[in-house]
Design brief:
Chain lengths: 551, 551
């Protein structure tokens, strides 16, 4: 769109002092907008929100295996088996009984993230008097309000508006040359709207195409706009046009400068599901976010979307409940997130990004006659990142305490978003006020989701509690010695005795085992005096311990 | 104070163009001039002339239509037939004389939206469109009853899966929330003021026990519409219909609905259908229903924001007219289109300028350009293949690019512009969508081509300008520009803006005498290269202006 107007209106020339709304830096020194502006860029942290559009059936994603019988009775026609090849994947055998979760078999990607301490689960999230309408409930999640509130802005929009005062007129500028928020796709959702003026996000699908398009069309805008309804709509269009001009070139530059780390992003669901649900629509979105970040983008909040969760009918394949639309979607999220985290790690960005899922509601605990589920209430939220506290928050939903066949909730969605805004994005009190989350992060209500960012101690410790190889006992040994190890998934394990040159001397274990601690006896009476190594490994873990043999 | 009182002065050009853009899909300059001489009452009368019924869409594969009763294996594939049906309907918007029936038929689709790729069957879409055409300016309550039994709607909201003992509430919920009474503020768990969750459950029972008529032979003789059928047993009784008495909440005065004839414990087929009539009558007896529908009409035809003043002075009286006329649409639309409010004549202060205050939908934009410039399209009666190809490349694809997936909105509630609070029509504008709107004008003026480079459709500026009915004297530059902007742009533009179009764009900052000379040169030599270039620049500038995006 017309670049002449862009050049006319660009507020910052290289080398000019930083201006805010036309006043120079010095004059603004005492005023709060400047202080807020300074506070905003103390961290380079990013929040990625994945919207699961349609209402995700949490109960078939996280099967409460401690209540398996009751689970099955509620939804026999869509129940996931508790054993067998296409049965649940037990999440974590160290969790107490009332938190024992079996993941849907196609969520292997998330299991791996969990085992590496990169994922947290918050069970049973909703809000009081949950609304059964997609549109209204989704609006509530985005507006950050109660069931009976009607707010014209979204919490993300208010957050960004607080962080970046003076938008859109004073942007882009040297401090913040990039869009405040980005939505992948073509349209802007309520989440990024502010109380007045254009929303805080730009919606894009592909930066190169976007750039080419924007620069090939559009004309000089009118000089002035009247204060009438007509004028307001005209101003809306003009503001969007101007922002498009300003950001198009920048986004293309960032995209070209950036790259992905060579990680393979998933493309298709490999098993049986309807044709139009096989393609992974989430992966390219996360891939683009990673690339823009690697290019240096300073956008603070990204929104990606994946739809198809409104599974009133045919949620599963009739002949095999472990496959079908819902399975494909869970697979898409798990594999895409796994690739995304690996990509971020490869790009050196892992410490900057946290990702959270949201959905307008869960689905009814009792299935319907169409192999599906109707609109429900509580559902889990997943949080991913190097800095997440790898926990499962709260017990499994109580299937004997339903409300008209719906799950009761334990948490309000604002507790999750509030915790992330405060601890991850490090928002100050004024900012939190604007998001409307202040009441949801009081000492009584706060959920701890973010771990120590410096050393990621939580993640390492988390892993060490679940996978370990203990020192042999006795050590030194000359006869029998005990080898003890633990794995946290059903997987292939190899435990072998090797010498210091790396030659394999004995294979102790070479089979698929289920999660748990194992102890076996090793007879070293035939070995010469010296140092040996016991090595245990699975596809995602390896550890060794020295064993000294004396005669 | 807003007022529905009739406006009785002659329309003039600006108001005539406004009426034709809003109540219909736009018009040519001659038609605008003709309407400009009429009063609103005379003009609206003319707009209510019912267009002749059109032949069914023809399939190039067979050369004939496929609607009696449905396609055979000789016809084109499923998805192609659906595309042909969409093209056939849009053709009625392009070719008909200016009339309310076309616009209102489209309004009914935005209200009772179904999504074509959930239906995947052209006959169901065809018969639904016929239903909308039939009731476009007819009885809305009767239409609602027909929609409850419409095959397309039944498939769309899983109505055929709703059976006694195995209820599916999808249709019942949307029937109450979207199509009839609408949702009020949520004043407690499960209570939306105008209806409650209990009413959804009871309504679902009323709608239970039907099946889609895949043969499309089940015709309602009174109304001559194809409809779904009751699932009957050998005795002709409604075997899968819940025949119990349904008791509604206090929102419906605790009314009950029961079958009027029961044999054994099953309702007769007629009694089952009668229950739907009873339910629709019950819902329409509530005041809230007329108000809800009138608000939708207002947002579609006038403006998206409904202030308290408008609610009291416009919506409430319109609802009264609606009720008093037994829910006929024509009296309501007639009152609206002849009112002072519609022409902004009810206030002395100009702040609420309704003229120009709606952002055109992509359909309004594309059809409006076609109609105003009388862009030649292949003759539907003649070259079928060419017609469908042109519609695909020249209309359906641009609609999608601009954010209107025709007959396929992302959401069950339909295109966001017509329901998404608070942004409504602003949903048509994002960086991408806006750029695509501009790009459409540019491509149409260049000529839209197929993959082999053959021209399919083009807005030829010379063809337009050389017709005296359009431009009285093309050699007079100022007059030429006037005759375009006065008719194309909804509101007056400033002197500077006019000068921009005239001097900077058309004249290239040269004199008007120079233009006269260039034009006369073209007339004597037939070489239009110089004037064509300038005219194309002018047309591009006007059609790619932000002002042109408004209606």
């Amino acid at each position: 769109m017309n670049r002449r107007s862009f050049l006319k209106k660009a507020p910052i020339a290289a080398g000019a002092p930083l201006m805010l709304n036309g006043l120079s830096l010095q004059a603004m020194a005492e005023q709060s907008p400047l202080q807020r502006l300074a506070a905003s860029s103390t961290n380079d942290r990013v929040l990625v929100i994945i919207q699961l559009h349609g209402g995700n059936d949490g109960l078939n994603a996280l099967i409460p295996i401690n209540q398996y019988g009751r689970y099955y009775d509620l939804r026999p026609n869509i129940a996931i088996a508790d054993k067998g090849n296409r049965g649940v994947i037990p999440l974590d055998s160290t969790l107490p009984d009332e938190q024992q979760i079996g993941l849907h078999p196609d969520m292997l990607g998330m299991k791996e993230l969990y085992d590496q301490g990169l994922m947290s689960i918050v069970q049973s999230v909703a809000y009081d008097n949950m609304n059964g309408s997609h549109f209204r409930s989704r609006d509530i999640w985005f507006m950050g309000g109660d069931y009976d509130e009607y707010i014209d802005s979204g919490w993300i929009g208010r957050y960004l508006d607080q962080l970046f005062p003076g938008y859109p007129d004073s942007y882009p500028n040297e401090e913040m040359p990039d869009p405040l928020g980005i939505e992948i796709g073509n349209s802007v959702s309520l989440g990024f709207h502010r109380d007045n003026g254009i929303p805080t996000s730009i919606a894009i699908s592909n930066p190169q195409q976007f750039y080419n398009l924007i620069n090939s069309v559009g004309v000089e805008p009118p000089e002035s706009v009247a204060d009438t309804y007509y004028g307001h709509e005209l101003q809306w269009i003009l503001d969007i046009e101007q922002k498009s001009n300003q950001y198009a070139g920048r986004l293309r530059e960032l995209y070209e400068r950036g790259s992905n780390s060579g990680v393979q992003y998933p493309e298709k669901y490999p098993l049986s599901a309807p044709a139009n649900s096989l393609r992974n629509g989430l992966a390219p979105q996360l891939q683009m976010i990673a690339r823009l970040l690697s290019g240096g983008i300073q956008t603070k909040v990204f929104l990606a979307r994946i739809g198809g969760f409104d599974t009133h009918a045919s949620q599963v394949e009739e002949y095999d409940a472990s496959m079908g639309i819902h399975a494909a979607l869970l697979y898409h999220i798990s594999e895409a997130m796994k690739a995304f985290q690996a990509d971020l790690r490869g790009l050196g960005l892992e410490n900057r990004v946290m990702t959270v899922t949201m959905s307008e509601f869960g689905r009814r605990a009792k299935s319907n006659g169409s192999y599906g589920t109707d609109h429900g209430t509580a559902a889990p939220m997943f949080v991913f990142g190097r800095n997440v506290k790898p926990v499962v928050v709260c017990t499994n939903p109580d299937l004997n305490d339903l409300n008209r066949n719906n799950l009761k909730h334990h948490f309000d969605y604002r507790q999750v978003f509030g915790s992330l805004i405060q601890d991850w994005m490090q928002a100050d009190d004024a900012t939190i006020e604007r998001t409307n989350f202040a009441d949801f992060i009081t000492p009584e209500s706060k959920i701890e989701l973010v771990g120590d960012p410096i050393t990621s101690v939580d993640a390492i410790q988390f892993k060490n509690e679940r996978y370990y190889l203990k020192p042999c006992s006795p050590n030194p040994a000359n006869g029998l010695t005990q080898v003890t190890y633990r794995i946290n998934a059903r997987e292939w394990v190899m435990v072998e005795l090797i010498d210091t040159m790396g030659n394999q001397l004995k294979v102790l274990v070479n089979e698929e085992q289920i999660a748990g601690e194992y102890s076996l006896t090793l007879d070293v009476s035939g070995l010469k005096t010296g140092t040996y190594i016991v090595q245990a490994k699975t596809s995602g873990w390896q550890d060794t311990t020295k064993l000294i043999v004396v005669r | 104070m807003a007022s529905l009182s009739p406006f009785s002065q002659t329309l003039g050009v600006k108001r005539a163009a406004h009426l034709l853009r809003r109540a219909a899909f736009g018009a040519t300059k001659s038609q605008i001039d003709q309407f400009a001489q009429l009063t609103p009452a005379q003009a609206v009368n003319q707009l209510f002339t019912q267009p002749a019924e059109r032949e069914a869409p023809r399939d190039p594969a067979t050369g004939t239509d496929w609607v009696s009763p449905k396609p055979t294996e000789n016809n084109s594939g499923r998805d192609e037939l659906i595309g042909q049906t969409k093209a056939w309907w849009i053709d009625s918007f392009l070719q008909s004389d200016p009339c309310v029936a076309t616009k209102s038929s489209f309004f009914l689709h935005t209200h009772f939206t179904t999504i074509s790729n959930r239906l995947r069957y052209a006959p169901s879409i065809y018969y639904q469109i016929r239903l909308f055409d039939q009731f476009a300016v007819g009885n809305f309550k009767e239409l609602t009853k027909c929609i409850c039994l419409d095959n397309a709607m039944m498939r769309h909201l899983d109505g055929q899966l709703n059976r006694k003992g195995s209820p599916n509430e999808n249709y019942a919920r949307e029937f109450l929330e979207l199509y009839s009474i609408g949702k009020g503020p949520q004043r407690g768990p499960d209570d939306y003021t105008t209806f409650t969750e209990l009413d959804v459950v009871e309504a679902a029972k009323v709608f239970s026990g039907y099946d889609i008529d895949e043969e499309f032979t089940n015709i309602n003789p009174e109304l001559n519409v194809v409809q779904a059928k009751v699932r009957t047993n050998d005795q002709g009784l409604a075997a899968q219909h819940d025949s119990s008495t349904k008791t509604f909440s206090a929102a419906f005065q605790n009314a009950t609905i029961a079958p009027i004839e029961i044999v054994g414990n099953l309702a007769t087929a007629e009694a089952a259908i009668d229950e739907i009539q009873q339910l629709v009558d019950l819902v329409f007896d509530q005041e809230a229903t007329a108000l809800h529908i009138c608000r939708k009409l207002y947002r579609f035809f006038v403006y998206y924001e409904i202030s308290d003043e408008v609610e009291q002075d416009i919506i409430a009286p319109l609802a009264t007219i609606f009720r008093d006329n037994g829910y006929e649409l024509q009296p309501v639309l007639q009152a609206l289109f002849t009112s002072q409010h519609f022409y902004d004549e009810d206030n002395s202060v100009n702040v609420d300028d309704h003229i120009g205050a709606i952002i055109k939908s992509p359909l309004d934009l594309i059809v409006g350009i076609h109609r105003f410039f009388d862009v030649p399209m292949p003759d539907y009666q003649g070259e079928l293949t060419s017609f469908y190809e042109t519609m695909n490349q020249g209309v359906l694809k641009p609609l999608t690019d601009q954010g209107m997936y025709f007959y396929e909105p992302f959401e069950v509630a339909g295109y966001p512009a017509y329901h998404q609070n608070p942004t409504f029509h602003r949903n048509w504008i994002s960086s991408n969508y806006l750029a695509r709107r501009y790009e459409y004008a540019k491509k149409l003026i260049e000529g839209i081509r197929d993959q082999d480079g053959n021209e399919l459709v083009k807005l030829d500026v010379m063809a337009y300008v050389t017709k005296p009915a359009n431009i009285s004297d093309p050699s007079d530059a100022e007059q030429l520009v006037r005759e375009l902007v006065d008719y194309l742009l909804p509101e007056e533009i400033s002197e500077e803006r006019f000068d921009f179009f005239l001097r900077a764009i058309l004249l290239d900052d040269l004199s008007e005498i120079n233009w006269k000379f260039e034009w006369q040169n073209y007339e004597s030599t037939g070489d239009d290269s110089a004037v064509r270039v300038q005219l194309e620049k002018l047309f591009n500038t006007i059609l790619q202006s932000p002002e042109y995006q408004l209606s």
